[in-house]
Structure formats: structure tokens, C-alpha cells
Amino acid sequence: MLESEKKLKFKEEIADAAMSARDAAIKSLRLADMGASRLGERVEELSRHLEESDTREDSRNGSRQRY
Predict the structure, then answer these.
(1) How far apart are CA 64 and CA 54, in angstroms?
(2) What is the residue-averaged pLDDT of the chain?
(3) Between vectors from CA 65 to CA 60 and to CA 67, what angle results, nearest 5°?
(4) Where are stretches of biased composition, namely Basic and acidic residues (predicted)?
(5) DSSP string spanning 20-41?
């Protein structure tokens, strides 16, 4: 195998590895984004529950402030 063929093969292998790394990074970012989105939804849900609980407690205790 000629030196130029070796260099070309090496460059192709590097390009393949770089594309695989890029694809893995994109997948990882998508998974992280989905996880962050789920966490955001959970925070919103828990905040709603807390507000509802506070509202029920306030109505039972005559609208007195908790803080």
C-alpha cells in the first residue's frame, strides 16, 4: 500500500470517527433536553399542587398568611 493510500485511509477513518462522535453528542444532547423538559414539567406540576394545597389551607384557616 502506498503512503498516499495510507494517508487517505487514515483520513477516512478519522472522518468516520468524527461523524460517529458527532452523532453520539447529538443523541446525548437530545436525551438531556428530554430529561430537562420532564423535570421542568414535574416542577410545574409540584408547584401547582403546592398552590392548591396552600389555597385549601388558607380557606380552612381563614385566609391567614403562612409567611
Answers:
(1) 10
(2) 92
(3) 130
(4) 45-61
(5) HHHHHHHHHHHHHHHHHHHHHH
